Target: Radical SAM protein
Amino acid sequence: MCNGESDSRLKQIGEQVMADKRITPAEGVYLFEKGSLSYLGALANHIRERMHGNKTYYNRNFHIEPTNVCVFSCKFCSYSRLYAHKEEGWELTTDQMLDIVKKYDDQPVTEVHIVGGVHPKLTLSFFADLLRKIKAHRPELHIKGFTPVELDYMFRKAKVNAEEGMKFLNEAGLDSLPGGGAEIFSPEIREQICADKVDADGWLAIHRAAHSIGMHSNATMLYGHIEKYEHRIDHMERLRSMQDETGGFNTFIPLKFRNKDNEMSHIPESSIVEDMKMYAVARIYMDNFPHLKAYWPMLGRNNAQLSLSFGVNDIDGTIDDSTKIYSMAGSEEQTPTMTSEQLKTLIRQVRREPVERDTLYNLVEG
Ligand code: MET
Model:
């Protein structure tokens, strides 16, 4: 498969990948710089099929976004409103959030995903109370919620450390952590795009605390803005090393920077070729992450289908028009909703096998 590659270093990296050997950071950067789309795609697809065959996971989920009022000012964000302008944003009460949960009472959803702005008045105990009420209403619904950015803020205000805070929320009903807030770990980029929120070590420490009590989590990376390939690899390297220690991550989710209505709108968005290379290198580099996800509300349906040939084995869930994060940033999917039948068709159209999963990748019979 790889013999057509004339660059001998690329060929040697390809042989290593085919032999199931880990690549180094320098080799990762080299793949980004010199690997053609077709070469990277062939390697990533080989890994994907070795790990998962044709299986492509999706789930039935919905989101709750408690608020978009936020104390932080990430330059890539199109969604948040500062507290000083809170009347331009929204802030849901506990009852309004429970009403969202109740809307799904007769539907076989398995997961609620809760993230949002970091509102200065929404405390650790407020969210613990929300978690308890959701669990009291629907105990089997998996609650995946809060990024380390949100958690770090609420833990600091409540004067608890990461371990104490995670244990407290887990006991209140939090089952796992989503992957958000990671952006780009390297301080030289992080300081330019989201200087005021939790740094790389803080992000990783909160996931480590979650893993230490048996919770699982995901990890994201926001790419395609001012970062260089070295920063992407540095980001993935930090995650890969931590995964060697804890084994608690399920899924890596590259998130594409979208440029509508934010302070980085002058930066052009990455091309589809760059997006597919990103997935492919992620699949090759993150050898200890079981799953690679293409988040379809961000990428669009056709591109999500394409990604299934570039290492991706998960396309997220039904969503039911319950998140505004990417629609406000200019995604083509302005009201993201798919039925499970539509998700299955999307997957089958590209000759992959749809498999409904729960958050932890247990199969859902249905
Ligand atoms: N508040 C989260 C973070 O920065 C993101 C939620 S989506 C707007 O991590």
The chain has a mean pLDDT of 96. Residues 55-356 form a domain with the TIM Barrel fold (CATH 3.20.20.70). The chain is about 40% helix and 15% strand.
